[in-house]
């Protein structure tokens, strides 16, 4: 096991500094991958800033970022960075984007920070020390399934996997209160941690989308699971689900696994 002593508030200070770039920096937009996948000059600037300063904060640590990465097999302490989760929202000036930073220790998310600069909302958690929003302790809600809100999406970057998503969303919607699609997985997961939504499912996200939020959810009393995986994947996409209570999680997982008995892109 890796021994670590790190002040999470120093991490939040770095992330807040990076958040100023989202508010001030011009948006030079470049396409990557398909027509729905973009990167901006701000993504690159934020990741470069955080990569350098997080390495200094924790010597010997490595970086896995959406725009660049070290080899994740080369170290046990890995910063996982999404410089702008919700890039399309950022390009369209919707004010619905976050910076997400997670520290993976011994293969599992250990510390997480999710920052929404437009509302100056800093979510953070360190395993065993609770979850916080701007310094105040947060907890998942106690709403039952019938009164829950679901956050989900339809596999934007590979729409071949959309059909089971629609079936799952429809089934959950029939039994719950409502659904939301905010366009940023990290923010939606952070919202579950503080009680704004209760249910979450996505068929295909990447490590940087969730590494920051997972410790926050768990420290806030929620449940989150990588579907059909024993450990947090560092180098491949995965399906994820979460809920505020064990009862809600069990019902959501029942629906998801009935419609998705296997994840089609897992090797």
Query: How many strands, which pairing sense, and closed or not: the largest β-sheet?
Result: 7 strands, mixed
User: Roughly what fraction of the amino acids lie in strands?
Assistant: 25-35%
Which bin fits the share of residues in helices? 25-40%
* Number of helical segments with 4 or more residues: 8
Explained architecture:
This protein has helices at 8-24, 41-57, 87-91, 162-175, 185-193, 207-210, 213-219, 246-259, and strands at residues 29-31, 38-40, 62-65, 77-85, 98-105, 108-116, 121-126, 131-133, 136-137, 149-152, 178-180, 199-205, 223-226, 238-243. The protein is α+β, with helices and mostly antiparallel strands. A seven-stranded mixed sheet has the order 3-4-5-6-7-8-9, sandwiched between helices. It has a five-stranded mixed sheet with strand order 11-10-12-14-13, with helices on both faces. The chain has a two-stranded antiparallel ribbon with strand order 1-2. A hairpin with a 2-residue loop joins strand 8 (131-133) and strand 9.
Write the layout of secondary structure elements.
Layout: H1 8-24, E1 29-31, E2 38-40, H2 41-57, E3 62-65, E4 77-85, H3 87-91, E5 98-105, E6 108-116, E7 121-126, E8 131-133, E9 136-137, E10 149-152, H4 162-175, E11 178-180, H5 185-193, E12 199-205, H6 207-210, H7 213-219, E13 223-226, E14 238-243, H8 246-259
Parallel strand pairs: 3-4, 10-11, 10-12
Antiparallel strand pairs: 1-2, 4-5, 5-6, 6-7, 7-8, 8-9, 12-14, 13-14
Helix pairs in contact: 1-2, 4-8, 5-7
Give short descriptive properties of this protein.
7-stranded mixed sheet, alpha+beta, 5-stranded mixed sheet, 267 residues, single chain, 27% strand, globular, 14 strands
